[in-house]
Design a protein that fits this description.
The structure holds 2 protein chains of 2 kinds. Chain A is of the alpha+beta class. Chain A has a domain at about 25-60 and about 70-80. Chain A has helices spanning about 5-15, 30-40, 45, and strands at about 1-5, 15-20, 25, 50-55, 60, 65, 75. In chain A, the strands form 2 sheets. In chain A, strands 2-1-7-4-5 form a 5-stranded mixed sheet. In chain A, strand 4 (about 50-55) and strand 5 form a beta hairpin. Chain A is globular, with a radius of gyration of 12 Å. The N and C termini of chain A lie far apart (about 30 Å). In chain A, about 30% of the residues are buried. Chain B is an alpha+beta fold. Chain B has a 5-stranded mixed sheet, sandwiched between helices. In chain B, about 35% of the residues are buried. The chains are: A alpha+beta, B alpha+beta. The interface of A and B includes residues 54 and 81 of A.
Chain lengths: ~80, ~160
């Protein structure tokens, strides 16, 4: 699955998106764990409560939310607009 | 950076690089509008001191697609909560200088209470839910602005 990154997180990971090999559907917690395994140096920044997550462009707080094949998934830092 | 425009009924929402004209936005809130007795608007500007450093400018990044969707949801929620008539919400992206305009929120309603509250609510939720990120140019180099607890706590008053 393809995961998008924005802002400081994109710079810290060194890529705007990455492909993670994972059977779907999977919970957000499972996807987050796979992502942390892929970027172990950035584990703290990717942790729940640090990085925000959007599924299909909607913010998701529940780590049990299922992610299906074809969903657009993004991780990013807390927002600072306005 | 992309530019997106969306209108939802009487509401106008835009994410754009271009500057906006407050007089024009105010005129749009009043035009052919015989029912509203109140217009409240807020503008956010780039200031030169932030989080302890001298700032010379900033770049605003966003998540195209999600940004527009998040703003539409915030405006829809405000419209459900208060009897607002028109909302105009513009947020700029790209490179901005000191004192540049960043955001405009304008709300019209028959009475002032709803217009004040809806405008305040929209800004508080935009600060927490709309995917924009500021990167400042400071005397010590570039840095991403940190999200503040006070912005998160600001939502408590709407619970």
């Amino acid at each position: 699955m393809n995961i998008l990154f924005f802002a400081a997180l994109r710079e810290q990971l060194g890529c705007a998106h990455c492909d993670i090999d994972l059977p779907l559907p999977a919970s957000l917690a499972t996807v987050r764990a796979a992502l942390i395994q892929h970027f172990p140096q950035q584990a703290e920044r990717l942790a729940a409560g640090r990085a925000l997550t959007a599924i299909n462009q909607t913010l998701i707080n529940d780590e049990d939310t299922p992610i299906n094949s074809g969903d657009e998934v993004a991780f990013f830092p807390p927002v600072t607009g306005g | 950076m992309s530019t997106g425009n969306a209108s939802n009924g009487q509401h106008y929402i835009a994410v754009q690089q271009a500057d906006f004209d407050v007089a024009h936005e105010y005129a749009e809130l009043r035009k052919d509008n015989r029912s509203d007795g109140a217009v409240v608007f807020f503008t956010g500007l780039v200031r030169e001191m932030n989080q302890g450093a001298q700032v010379s400018g900033l770049t605003l990044e966003h998540y195209p697609g999600m940004t527009e969707k998040a703003l539409q949801q915030i405006v829809a929620d405000a419209s459900t909560r208060w009897p607002v008539n028109r909302v105009r919400l513009i947020h700029r992206v790209g490179t901005l200088a000191i004192s540049d305009q960043i955001v405009f929120v304008g709300v019209s309603s028959s009475h002032r209470e709803a217009a004040f509250d809806a405008c305040y609510y929209i800004m508080d939720y935009l600060k927490n839910r709309a995917p924009f990120w500021k990167k400042e140019v400071t005397s010590q180099g570039e840095r991403w602005v940190e999200a503040l607890d006070k912005d998160k706590q600001a939502l408590d008053k709407w619970q």
